[in-house]
Design goal:
Keywords: Membrane, Transmembrane, Transmembrane helix. The chain has 316 residues and is mainly α. The protein has a domain at 22-134 and 167-274. The protein is 77% helix and 0% strand. The longest helix is centred in the C-terminal third of the chain and has 30 residues, at 276-305. It starts with a helix and ends in an 11-residue tail after the last helix.
Length: 316
Amino acid sequence: MTRQTSSLQGLGTRWSRQTPALRGIALMCLSTVAFSIMHGLVRFVSEELPPFQIAFFRNIFGLAFLMPLLVRSRFEMLRTRRLGLHALRGVVNIVAMLMFFTALSISPIAKVTALSFTAPIFMAVLAVIVLGERIRIYRWLAILSGFTGMLIILRPGLVAIDTGALLVTGSAALWAIAMVIIKILSRTESSVTIVAYMGIFLGVFSIVPALWVWQPFGRETLGWMVLIGLFGSIAQISLSQALKETDPTAVMPFDFLKLIWTALIGAWFFAEIPDVFTWIGAAVIFASGLFIAVRERQAKQATVSGGGPLSAGTRE
């Protein structure tokens, strides 16, 4: 046994000895760092290439990182009876991604990150409308609070609402629709199958938009896009594993670190300093989403203890 192998085994042993909550928190923190780096790289590469082209390579390299898993399972994970719903999720996701990447290319990345926190708020609304989940007063209060936070950031009527802000808000709404579709799929599909089809459909659906705006690029730019795919994959895997390790409400508070990291990246590399309204609005939005998650978890536990179905609460 080599020294390197022994060190890796020792590290794995120490990791397994940690509590699930601590492992989940560590993985969530890792995902925030990876997401923030990816956002910074998208902003950097967008100075040379169109966002649609960047999104294509993000999806292609993301799919490439997924291929070993597909091959190892002999493509068993692709078995499904809900191909149409997977495709619909892919359409929604690719539009949301294109809007988000475009917003990153024209707006301060801290502001984009702050407004992206509205996705759980939109999902709470859709869960009532689409999934028929019970309307609770605290949910509506939290939703109103979340949209108040969005208005604090945008300040309509006081300052001009830029295109990037509208795009990221629309992207958050579409992400919420995608999350609802995921919730429906998860009733019959494994998480691995859902992730696999996401990678495939995003790769396919991003080809035409990329060709529409295609620009030539060099090896250095290709290297940056490989890193975008790498950090995007690390972020997604870390986030998924964090939610698998422990309850979402235990790790959600640490998602706010994304705003801190993106603010630092924006200030250091792009001379973008978030204003106080961005911080206040983001805090209000994030607190609203966290409150919804905590109360839904409590409602779910109460239903389970009372003998009711496990599906009474929301996904998070």
